[in-house]
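Most newcomers find our protein records easier to grasp once they have seen one. Nothing more is needed to start thinking about how sequence determines fold. Here is such a record, shown just as it appears in the course material:
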Amino acid sequence: MIGYVTLGTNDLDKAVTFYDQLFASIGAGRFLETESFVAWAKSPDQAGLSITKPFNGQAATPGNGTMVAIQLDNAEQVDAFYQKAMELGATDEGKPGPRGEMDGFYAGYFRDLDGNKLNAFYIDMPKS
């Protein structure tokens, strides 16, 4: 369904360093790359996230109400991913924990170095 989501950056080198380290913590690496665009995924056939300098040459700005959600396998991975983002200079938008939106939903929210909002989440679905 979704191939990849793209976020803008004003400092490509700094953003690439941030995401290289953050995504390495969950086994994801680069799968597409140009001079102004880099994308990461666990494999080329899975959804990924990319960053780019805006094509129009204007400043990149985070979208109001825009968020990228990274699905992980368990609450411990959410905690570790969120903590890695904090170590790399992200800002807190909601520490990891259960959320009231739905039973079994566990998430941590942060903003990357350009102010883009992301969340790491896990849903503990009952086994049928």
Summary: The first strand starts at residue 4 and ends at 8.
